[in-house]
Design brief:
Four copies of one chain form a homotetramer. The first copy, chain A, is mainly α. Helices cover 76% and strands 0% of the residues of chain A. Chains in contact: A-B, C-D. The structure holds a DNA duplex (21 and 21 nucleotides).
Chain lengths: 197, 197, 197, 197
DNA sequence: CATGAATGAGGGTTCATTCAT
DNA sequence: AATGAATGAACCCTCATTCAT
């Protein structure tokens, strides 16, 4: 990788990092390009060398953070043989990730720039599809094996995500006073003992 | 009630209704007073007879919708004797309300106007406290009677709300193609059979 | 005078009084009809029964206050035989009036509503003309009698008014901490001993 | 000085110049940023690169004009030995300056933006203090030497400023038909022959 | 005569984006 | 590649004035 290319990557990453923090704190509309670039230490015009517009920045944050998360889950979870252990680990990673990157979750719940509403909704569908497909085979296998109740797969997945997000949300509005990861067992318990026969 | 008072109430309500729809569609920042008033059919200045400013409108929507919901739950749920039946009914009402007022849910997840962030977070805490206290006694009693596992009360409540919101969220991003209320049984099942011994 | 006519006069006077105070405190533009009428205790629309518009109010205040002042000077000063005594008394009355009605002076120096700029300047010309004609004969007589230096009459008059206003202005920006009237002697001294041979 | 810096200074100066004229003609409230920038030939937003807000513009005009005036008086007057000659020159410069910058005087008498009333009054106090201190030593010395009557210093200063402003005011409302500077002798005469023993 | 709800033109200010350097 | 001065559309909010009651 050339020196230039490295610098390029770094600058882009710095923008993303700073922007993520600011947007999570103040909201999309109240975060200005001016403030972002000033905090990064670059000129305002430079921003537009790395992003098409403000909207592009927003989706880039979400996209790249999401990919990070998915990658991490894949890496650490995939090889675990036992399904319920794999599920437990998945929950743990998910909570851990949000404990470290709680800005990301806040941004996910933000006002979305109007023009691109469609693409935002598309993003969410992708999100759930990936989660789904990631877990899908496992769930289906367990259903076949009669280890899990015969519940529609989608309902299972959205309930799981729901429990997770509900707990993350609560953790944030309580100012992150307790450890989020420590909730992994109780969440796992509520979720699995409900679906396990 | 006088004629004038009726008209007054109506106009205010119309603004709230229109604004709720627009904000849920386009987000708080992208929704303009101009557009709201034009859609209601009143002058721009008239808006400020009913609301102090744009921020006031935002919180009025949330506050009043929330009170409606709570009232409805209280009215229809309170008298049911059996706890699990009561819980079931509560889930049903909650889903039903959001099926009819799905804009409200979208707004709840919006970007909050920055200056009043504190009061927004206070709202969420109130929200959960009310839900909590509303269910609390019931849950505690059931725990004493050994009908429910000994799980921290807060964890139970946020998991329930989590499941509900996860399902509402999914329903919305799927363009509300199916009936939300019909999910009540599966949600109830996943949730209760997890916590019930 | 009929009862109605009395009420009419009173209401108009109350508006003038309240408006004078508010405008002198906050300036013309920042004083709203709403605030004036609320403080008077009448409806906003009622204002327009007594004044054509906001501009009319402004000039009415100045005009009527000015007429009061002129009347007072005439009444108390005219009969005094000796010219310098008359001048002295005139200065005293002028200071006394502004000490009691310092709002008036503040208003005189206010921003004038643009559209009527011409009429505002006309007012000032009238003001000086009246002062002038009021003193003119006396001054001219004294010049003839060689009691006063041969200085252009206008220069004399504007210098006198200048000294008076300079002192009033200073008194106001010093928050009226001392008695304005007490300056009458030193003003008279500086002015007369300059012009008297 | 760099090219950029020059342009910067110029643009700022142009805004000040145009604004001074407009405000003196129409008053502060009636003068809009839109009009100012259009007349200068720049975009509306550009204004805010040079001034924090409209209020800042107002005080900048006063402050900078005032400093110009004081500088000029200092430069041209300070070295004159004889007190009365120095006073005469001071009066001349003061009149000359206002003849050339008559807009400034008009602005000084404007409605002050409400919020900053305190700082406006502070400005006036500063103004008189500077004038005072500028002349003070001279006056005091003359009093000691018995060349001037024993009159309170403040009274002397405000009377002098009063005469000057009275004459400027009159000159303006007479549409500046005559030369203001030519009044210097008569003003000097009225003032000094009053205070000189 | 009296009212005050309703209006909408108009003003100050912000900020994403451009473009000459 | 990097910059930041310049722009102007867009937005929130105010308030003098009107008019139906």
């Amino acid at each position: 990788m050339t020196d230039w290319s490295v610098k390029m990557k770094n600058k882009r990453k710095m923008i993303l990092k700073v922007a993520e923090r600011l947007i999570s704190q103040k909201g999309y509309s109240k975060t200005t390009i001016e403030e972002i670039t000033k905090k990064v230490g670059i000129g305002k015009g430079t921003f537009y060398l790395y992003f098409k517009d403000k909207n592009d920045l927003f989706f880039s944050i979400i996209k790249e953070e999401f990919e990070n998360l998915m990658l991490k889950i894949k890496e650490e979870v995939e090889e675990i043989e036992d399904f319920f252990e794999r599920l437990k680990k998945g929950i743990e990673i998910y909570l851990e990730y949000h404990e470290k990157n709680y800005n990301f979750f806040k941004i996910l719940l933000q006002e979305k720039p109007f023009i691109k509403r469609k693409s935002f909704e598309k993003f969410w569908r992708d999100f759930f599809k990936k989660w789904g497909s990631f877990m899908k085979d496992g769930f289906e296998e367990q259903i076949k094996k009669n280890k899990i109740k015969k519940i529609d797969l989608e309902d299972i997945i959205y309930s799981l995500i729901g429990i997770l997000h509900g707990n993350i949300h609560n953790w944030i509005i309580n100012n992150r006073k307790y450890s989020l990861v420590e909730k992994k067992d109780v969440i796992f318990k509520i979720f699995t003992e409900g679906i396990r026969r």
